[in-house]
Design brief:
With about 290 residues, this protein is an alpha/beta fold. The chain has 11 helices and 9 strands. The longest helix is centred in the C-terminal third of the chain and has 24 residues, at about 190-215. Bound molecules: pantoate.
Length: about 290
């Protein structure tokens, strides 16, 4: 596995192969990323992974400085998962010291959900992914669907700007108890981690209400999810002592059309159920899709 830090080295390595799959990451790799790398390996004979904590997608009060950067562990995970090339540029290599702002905005997909709560987040994501696609020139790029809106936005960017790359979304990888894998799970204390399980439970419960009981009004599904996330003190979820003391706050609990990301009043497949919530000080997101996307 070759590890390169400059754009020139990355371009030189890329020239050696006809096709390749790229897995863009911000490092702190977990089983979810490993699944993306393995999937990429099934799609193309050569796999590149980018590891870059992109400053432009973090808001001023977000966790850019404390975002984990265990680069040696990440490289060994990439090697074990079968990556051929890792592009790990320092911030100066990507943006220089005097980067001028550049905006790729796709408001019909970014005005809701994450985009509404993290203004300018998707501009930063589009900026860095456009640069990575230009530098690495992959035939295929693989992204996790835990960031469902991110994938929808990037797929639209690629389509609207005619990038010659096939965009592949990979199902969310979960811990055995249902918690969606995320680099930010590392910030959770054991008790917060238990409390965070309410997020996936809420999503699965709402999906089950629709599938098993035919409840299709999204207001009812959203109410179910909110009740599981913020149960009354007497609820069994908080009954085992400390759990109730972990502060949880909801950024959004939403049901939207999984293609347009516009709110829907009644489930029309495919519908996306999505949650963003803070458990303690850690902000987590998760989603499930009802139907096929
Ligand atoms: O999903 C991520 O890890 C990041 O948003 C991405 C796509 C690597 C861009 O920095």
């Amino acid at each position: 596995m070759q590890v390169v830090q400059t754009i020139a080295e990355c371009r030189a390595a890329r020239k050696q192969v006809e096709r390749l799959a790229l897995v863009p990451t911000m490092g702190a790799l977990h089983e979810g990323h490993i699944a993306l790398i393995r999937h990429a390996r099934n799609l193309e004979a050569f796999v590149a992974v980018s590891i870059f904590v992109n400053p432009t997608q973090f808001g001023p009060r977000e966790d850019f400085t404390k975002y984990p950067r265990p680069i040696e562990e990440d490289l060994s995970k990439c090697r074990d998962a079968g990556a051929d090339l890792v592009f790990n540029p320092p911030p100066g290599e990507m943006y220089g010291s005097d980067a001028k702002p550049i905006l790729i905005d796709i408001p019909h997909l970014t005005d809701s959900l994450e985009g509404k709560h993290r203004p300018s987040h998707f501009r930063g994501v589009c900026q860095v992914v456009a640069k990575l696609l230009n530098i690495v020139q992959p035939s295929t790029a693989v992204f996790g669907l835990k960031d469902f809106q991110q994938f929808a936005v990037l797929r639209a960017m690629v389509e609207l700007l005619d990038f010659p790359v096939e965009m592949v979304g990979h199902a969310t990888i979960r811990e055995t108890d249902g918690l969606a894998m995320s680099s930010r799970n590392a910030f959770l204390s054991p008790i917060e981690r238990r409390r965070a399980l309410a997020i996936s439970r809420a999503l699965f419960a709402a999906k089950e209400q629709y599938i098993e009981h035919g409840i299709n009004q999204t207001s009812r599904l959203v109410a179910t999810m909110k009740q599981i996330l913020l149960p009354p003190a007497s609820n069994a979820l908080t009954a085992d002592g400390d759990l109730g003391r972990v502060p949880v706050s909801i950024d959004y609990v939403a049901a939207v059309d999984a293609v347009t990301l516009s709110p829907v009043e009644v489930v029309r497949e495919p519908t996306l159920l999505a949650i963003a919530a803070r458990v303690g000080s850690t902000r987590l997101i998760d989603n499930v899709v009802i139907g096929e996307v």
